[in-house]
Amino acid sequence: YDILVGEGGFKDTWYLAKERANAELNTFHNFRGPQEGGQRIDWILVRGDAEVAYSEIVKYSQAGQYPSDHCPVLARMKLSVPGLGN
Question: What are phi and psi for residue 28, nearest 5 degrees?
């Protein structure tokens, strides 16, 4: 992460987001359900210009079962493509 967002030139959409949901949750829960505190170890990175409206740590489950041992991270964004006049 540090290399990618440092010298790699990527940006973390979480920090670019104008609005965030479930910011208090960490993303690894080992199938025990979302937990507060800890670290967000999952991310969405972008390079170049991106307008990020919203980001969320998704805590979805169905009947107490989780699809993964990590909570997904979602980002709603608009990407700019050089040369297209976005």
Answer: -100, 125
- Tens-digit pLDDT profile for residues 40-83: 999 999 998 899 999 999 999 999 899 999 999 999 999 877 77
Alpha carbons 68 and 51: distance in angstroms, whole number: 28
Question: What is residue 69's DSSP assignment?
Answer: S
- Specify the pTM: 0.84
76: three-class secondary structure by DSSP: strand
- 51 to each of 5, 21, 76, how far by Cα in Å? 17, 17, 9
H or E stretch at 13: helix 13-16
Q: How far apart are the first and last CA of the chain?
A: 28
The β-bridge partners of 19 are 54
